[in-house]
Every structure is written in C-alpha cells, then in structure tokens.
Amino acid sequence: MTAHENRISRPQKIAFAYAVILALVAGLNLIPGLKQDDGTILGVFALDFYDDMLHAASALWAGIAGWLGRRAALTYLIGFGALYLGDGLLGMLTGSGYLDAGILIYGIQDSSLVFRMAANAPHLALGGVALLAGLVDRR
Questions:
Q1: Total number of domains in the chain
Q2: Mind giving me the DSSP string for the chain?
C-alpha cells in the first residue's frame, strides 16, 4: 500500500466529523441543564427518543462510511445530505419534517417563520453542507 492509499480523503474526514456532531446531538437530552421544563433543548428543539435514535443511526452511518473509504463517504454525504436537506425544507414549508414522521403524525403546523427557521436550521445546514461536499468531491 502506498502512502497515498493510506491517506484519509476529505469526504472521509467530513463523514467522521458528521459522526461526532450527530453523536453529540443524539446525546443532548442526556446533558443536565439543557433540557427545559417544556421538554425542549435550549427552548427550541423538542428531541424525543425517536429523534435521538435517528441522530444516533445517522452518526453510526457516517462513522461506518468514513471507515469504509472515500466512495462510501461520498455516498453517505450525498444520501444523508439529500435526506436532511429535504427534511429541513419540508419543515420550513409545513412546520413538520418527514425523518421523524412528523408530517404524518402532526401534519401542517401553524408556527411562525422565525420558529420554523430556528427549528429547521440544523437540518438545512447539516444537509446542505453534506450534499454540497459530496457533490463537489465527486470526481
């Protein structure tokens, strides 16, 4: 194996970073003081067991993809990015996403644009950056 083959590619590094970020997000409910009396994190995000499992599974997917190699990491970045960006866009339009089945359970929500922006910004940012990184690095 050459030194070049042994190097971790940029998509792999990004996938590993996503594994760490998403694992931290999955653990937010476990950090004392972050969860408010109304069940929200920082007064905005209501993360339940299903959200935590979604984030944990996404972290595991990212970590495995990064470990498997460049091609798997690119597939992860594009797939994850499209899923999370789409969820964030739907959340902006309707107040509910699809990754947690919110659109099926709660339907269209009557919430302010400011709240929708705050609630969906993480999925828009994480999804958008991942998708862009995957598409840019795909050569």
A1: 1
A2: --HHHHSPPHHHHHHHHHHHHHHHHHTGGGSTTTB-TTS-BTTTB---HHHHHHHHHHHHHHHHHHHH-HHHHHHHHHHHHHHHHHHHHHHHHHS--STTSHHHHT-S----HHHHHHHHHHHHHHHHHHHHHHHHH--
